[in-house]
Amino acid sequence: MVDHRQRTRAVLHYEPYDRLPIVHFGFWRETLDKWAAEGHITPDEAATWADGNATDEALSRKLGFDFNWAHTFGLNTSLLPPFEERVLEELPDGSRKVLNRNGVVIIQKEGASGIPPEVDHLLKGRKEWEEHFLPRLQFTEERAFIPEETIAYLQRGEWEKPLGLWCGSLYGVIRDWVGLVNLAYLQVDDPPLFDEMIETVGNLCYRCVERVLQTGAPFDFAHFWEDICFKSGPLINPNVFRAKVAPHYRRITELLRRHGITIVSVDCDGKIDRLVPIWLESGVNTMFPIEVGTWNGNLAPWRQQYGRELRGVGGMDKRVFARDYAAVDAEIERLRPLVELGGYIPCPDHRIPPDAKWENVQYYCERMRTIFG
C-alpha cells in the first residue's frame, strides 16, 4: 500500500521521507465543466465531484495528485436545521432575491459564478438570535451520530491518504450569518451578544470534536475553516480575535493533542500575517492555503519570524496553470527553497480555476514527483 499518510506526517514533523506528497485543494465547478467539454473527464465526473469523494480520487489519479488536503471527516457544526432556501423576489433583470440556508438574502443570477452579493441578513440582533439561530446551534446526538461501521473503519485507520478531522469555524461562520459590516457594528453596539455568539459556536465545535475523538480514530491532522482575511489583512481586529476567539481555539487544540493529533491546520484566504501569531499561540500550527495572489503569501518570512513550529500547506501560485510549461517550471523552482525549509507541502493556493489547462496541471504533478521524489 502506498502510504501517503506516513509521507505527510514525516514532512510536517521534519522527519525523513521518500518523496513529497503531491497535493491539491479541489476545483471550481466551471473548471470541471470545461475539462468535461474538452474530453479530459466525463460529464458525470464533473457533476459528482466533491472534496474527498470517489470522483475526487479518480480525478486526482488522472492528473497525478496524491490527495486533496480538504478531505476531512467531521460532524455537523452548522445551523441545524438550516434555513429553508426560498425565492423571495423575481427581479426585472432575471435575477432573484433568495433566502439561503444561512438566513442571508442573496442575489442569485443564472449562470453567474463566484460569491453572490448579500443584500440582507435575517440575523439583526438578539431577538433573531434567540428565536432563529441559538436553537439551531445546540449540541444534539443527531449531530454526533456515527454508524457503527464508520466507527470501525475509523478505528482501523487503514486508509492510505491522510485524513483530517473537521473542527468547524469559530468566527468566519458568524460573519456569514451576520454580514461583515453588521458584525463590525455588533461588537460595539451589543458586546454581550457578540460574546454569546462566539461562545455558542465555540462550545458546539468543541462538543462535536470531542464526540468524534471518543471513537479512538487515529486522525492525521485536524482542520478549521475561517476565511476572515482579504488582500490587505484581517476582517477582524487581531486584538479582538486574540481576546474573544483564540481561547476557543486553544481549548479545542488542547483536546486534540490529548488525543495525539499534533498537526492542526486552518483554511483562511487572504493576507493572514497578523493572525498567524495568534493561531500559533492557540495551537494551530499549519497555515493553508497560503494564497500567493496579489499579496504574495509565503511561508519563508513566517518561518523566519516564528520558527519551525509553524508549518504550511499551499503557497503554489495556481495562476501558472493558465500559461505554459515554462511558467510551471519557474513556479516549481520558486517553491524549491521553501520545500527545503521542511515542514511544508506545496499545494495550489486555492481551487484550480477555469483558465487552468489540463495538460499544465498534469505536467506540474509529473515535475513535482520527479524533482522532489
What does this structure look like?
With 373 residues, this protein is an alpha/beta fold. The chain has two domains: 4-79 and 123-371, TIM Barrel (Alpha-Beta Barrel), CATH 3.20.20; 84-121, no CATH class. It contains 15 helices and 15 strands. The protein has helices spanning 4-12, 29-37, 43-48, 54-63, 126-133, 141-144, 148-156, 172-178, 180-189, 191-213, 238-258, 276-281, 299-306, 325-340, 358-371; strands at residues 23-24, 67-68, 72-73, 86-90, 96-99, 104-108, 118-121, 164-166, 221-225, 229-230, 233-234, 264-267, 286-288, 311-316, 344-348. The protein has a seven-stranded parallel beta sheet, with helices on both faces. A four-stranded antiparallel beta sheet has the order 4-5-6-7. Helix 8 (172-178) crosses helix 9, helix 9 crosses helix 10 and helix 10 (191-213) runs parallel beside helix 11 (238-258). The chain is globular. It starts with a helix and ends with a helix. 39% of the residues are buried.
- Main beta-sheet annotation: 7 strands, parallel
Can you give the helix content as a percent range? 40-55%
Instruction: Output mean pLDDT.
Output: 94
Under the CATH scheme, which class of the largest domain? Alpha Beta
Proportion of β residues? 5-15%
How many helices? The count is: 15
Shape annotation: globular
What is the straight-line distance between the termini? 17 Å
Which secondary-structure class do the elements indicate?
A: alpha/beta
Number of domains: 2
Number of strands: 15
The radius of gyration is 21 Å
Reported by name, the CATH topology of the largest domain is: TIM Barrel
Order of helices and strands: HEHHHEEEEEEHHHEHHHEEEHEHEHEHEH
Low-confidence runs:
none
Strand line-up in the sheet with most strands: 3-8-9-12-13-14-15
